[in-house]
Amino acid sequence: MKVTRKQQKIVLRTLDGWRQEGVIDEAEQQRLQQHLSPQLFDWQRLSRYAFWIALACAIIAIGSLVADEYLMALLFDFGYATRAIILALIASACYFWGFRRQKHTPEKRYSNEAIMFLGVLFTALTLSQVGMALDNGSGNVAPLFLLGCAIYAAIGYLSRSGLIWLFFLLSLGSYFGTSTGYASGWGAYWLGMNYPIRFVLFGGVLLAACYLLQKPLQQRNLFNTSKAMGLLYLFIALWILSIFGNYDFDIWQSVRQIELLHWSLLFALAALACIWISLKTDDGMLRGFGLTFLGINLYTRYFELFWDGTNKVIFFLLLAISLALVGRYAERIWRVGEAGKSH
Predict the structure, then answer these.
(1) Is there a contact between 273 and 262 (Cβ–Cβ < 8 Å)?
(2) DSSP letters spanning 234-276
(3) What stretches pass through the bilayer (predicted)?
(4) Looking at the chain, which terminus has fewer C-beta neighbours within 10 angstroms, N or C?
(5) % helix / strand / coil in the chain, to the nearest 5?
(6) CA pair distance 266, 329, nearest whole angstrom
(7) Distance of CA 196 to the CA centre of its chain
(8) What pLDDT, in 10s, does the model give residues 103-134?
(9) What is the tens place of the pLDDT at every residue in 283-299?
């Protein structure tokens, strides 16, 4: 069995633990170890990184092309509608090519997904040209994002591509933001909510839908992407909300920090809830988001409230002591659990 060096260390540590616990004897441990064949170089990871860099370069190249009026006029000296049709045909060809390769050469995962992603880029360019062709001065771009949602959702779901599904979720957030912004006349509030509160609700609803549709999403390898984006929308919105509250920017400048304390507490409670659930379910993603944004919350509050008035040595010393106490308490619980397993 071919494994990476990191995987080999994990397997060897597991086999050694089983031998010490009496699950297997030493002869069985040695027999299993002989079936491990470590790879000296992780070609799979290199392939993934190479395609990611290639896609990043393609995005930069296409963005530079669109920004260059001379090249656009030279290559696409047509009206907006004709450009949209040409770009749509290119996007369709990429999708067709990608699906065909997925069917005949499914083992070429990264190159197949890169081709599909080119279709995503040309779809976005198509929608931009459609928007310019249909622009009537209203500023309502939400229908274009909704059309992008439908295309990316269908392609991502059928191709089991987390990358394309990510663009669907980004387009869905953009649609929600632009549709509510247009409905409010591009003012600060929609139904009494500013943008951060809207996206707190949006992230919460997205997370709830993710767990309600967990089974079909897991079957298409899209659950983790959906959960990560739901958490990202939720926590970034909570972070911004803890800074600005439900205030317009002009009003916020005259608001005292103590009036925003309840939003900071809500942000902290959400992070602690993630950490608590992760400890109960051993969910690494929830633990990572909870710990990361709890730290962001602490640092944000520090810079807001204590940066000017507190000695930096004293503050970080108190923070280190508190984290050490938390770590000591967690270590005690872990040792109790390990002692229970041994019995």
Answers:
(1) no
(2) HHHHHHHHHHHTT--HHHHTT--GGGGHHHHHHHHHHHHHHHH
(3) 49-66, 78-98, 110-134, 140-158, 165-189, 195-213, 225-245, 260-279, 286-307, 313-330
(4) C
(5) 80, 0, 20
(6) 24
(7) 18
(8) 888 777 777 888 888 888 889 888 888 888 88
(9) 888 888 888 888 888 87
